[in-house]
Amino acid sequence: MKTAQDFILEIPVLKPRDNITKARQILRDDRFREVYIVDAKKNLLGYIDITDGLRVTATKSNITIEGFVKEAPMVHPADSIEVAARAMRSYRTDSAAVVDPEPRVSGGVLLSDLFPVIISRNELHGTVASRMSRSVVAISPAEEIQKVYSLIVESGFSAFPVLKKKRLVGIISRRDLIASRRVRSVIAEHSRTPVESMMSTDVVTIAPGEPVSAAAELLVKHDVSRLPVLDGDRLVGIIDRHDVLAALA
User: Fold this and answer.
1) 36 — phi, psi (to 5°)?
2) What is the DSSP code (8-state) at residue 246?
3) What angle do CA 167, 168, 173 make, to 5 degrees?
4) CA 211, CA 38: separation in Å to the nearest integer?
5) The CA-based dihedral angle spanning residues 152, 153, 155, 156, taken in that order and rounded to the nearest 10 degrees
6) Could you give the count of Cα atoms lying within 13 Å of 137 in the half-sphere of its Cβ?
7) Cα dihedral sign, 127-129-133-136
8) Distance between CA atoms of 127 and 75, rounded to whole angstroms?
9) What is the mean pLDDT of the chain?
């Protein structure tokens, strides 16, 4: 049986006194949605995520990480990947730190790496409707980018469906904001740039009556973390990797 050790990789770590802008630079890498914070002996103190990186809009800032650190999920090398996935689901993160008993960080595991293996060897129960989140925060294509920034910081959600006259026309994510230098200048300068100019229009969706296993397959096939759920043309929910893991036997 595969364990966390089989999927361990080197992960970026920072110290509490490092600047938030340094963390934001790391978070622009698509592989990492969290950065782990350690002390001088590399013992785990916590983590910050992309949402924290967005809270500071200045391209240059002397604000340090220590005020943003949250308790982090951690696993041991011998733990099964299901144990690692449960830890990530508990914290709603996309990674977990792998630690020794100190707990000193030796690396990390990513949910995106574990997810395909977990769903291939475990039975999934229920329909999309039974596992999806019905609390969907959507946005209009005419809204300004500042609105998306505010929603991410306030809600902690990572992506927002874009609706025009109640029809899904796109999706915009926190990754779009953290990765784009243009977005940061738009926010800092209070420019009236609309969401439709930066949203993705190629959106993978699923119906509520489909089995959870179908959602899992789409998440893996398209390498996305969440799917809007459409009942006909009507947006009725969102299902993500964590929701799918809740359907494990």
Assistant:
1) -90, 145
2) T
3) 150
4) 41
5) 80
6) 16
7) positive
8) 30
9) 87
Residue type for 161, please?
Answer: P
- Whether pTM > 0.90 for this model: the answer is no
Residue 4 tokens read as 């966390």
Q: To which H or E segment does residue 176 belong?
A: helix 174-179
> Distance between CA 140 and CA 144 in Å, rounded?
9
Q: Is 145:178 a contact under the CB 8 Å cutoff?
A: no
pLDDT in tens, 155-166: 777 789 999 999
Tens of pLDDT along 24-74? 777 765 567 889 999 999 999 999 987 776 666 655 568 899 889 999 999
Span 209-246, pLDDT tens digits: 999 999 999 999 988 888 999 999 999 999 999 999 99
Can you give the length of the chain in residues?
249
Structure tokens at 94: 């996309």
Which sign does the torsion angle of CA 207, 208, 210, 215 carry?
positive
